[in-house]
Specification:
66% helix, mainly alpha
């Protein structure tokens, strides 16, 4: 491309995409995030406990798998 067509393309893109007026946030969102995390208690469902039990049983039945699992962590 020539320099003239580059400049023309640049002008077209600048007119199509207007500049941001306020790129900064008006307030900090982190305190709200911490508040939401504190509001929700951690809950575990029965499915979670069943999966934990299955993994423990699996590791007891196949003890050789323990090294493979520890390697993957």
């Amino acid at each position: 491309m020539s320099e003239q067509s580059d400049e023309r393309l640049r002008r077209i893109l600048q007119s199509a995409i207007p500049p941001l007026e306020a790129p900064e946030l008006e307030r900090d969102l982190w305190p709200q995030m911490l508040q939401k995390l504190d509001e929700r208690p951690m809950r575990t469902s029965r499915l979670d406990w069943i999966l934990v039990a299955l993994v423990i049983v699996w590791l007891l039945v196949f003890p050789g798998v323990v090294t493979v699992v520890l390697y993957q962590l």
